[in-house]
Amino acid sequence: PPGNKELEPLKYSMVATTMSRQKVEDCVQGTMSLFSHCLAKGENVALVLKEVGLLLIEGTKVEMKFYHDFLEKLSGKENLEKVVFKVPELLDMMVSPVVPVSSMTFSGHVILFPEFLMESVPKTPPQILLKPLRRPGP
What we know:
alpha/beta, six-stranded mixed sheet, 6 strands, globular, CCD81, CCDC81_HU_dom_2, CCD81 protein
């Protein structure tokens, strides 16, 4: 690997707090297997990193979006404001946790991990004017 860094395997027993190590290992491996399968099929995917942000992959575009609260905790409120003032493009890297992930994609749909949900932003249908039905009078 670049930089001759060694990868350290995930210590499942340290992650397993309320469930068995085997269950945690099965969940992580299942998630990564499905994630890999979706990428191989060219699906749009988003890996949600709780309280950090999300990794959004759409086609060949890979983008990391961070939650404002995370960046504020990391750098401090005042420092974050100074940096954003100097480099306003950083605002493009921030996202609110309440914004639908699918609204950040060009296609309007994405598979969210680790929930395995398909999220779509519905396209606005054309407005059709319907006349109210009239009941025959007595």
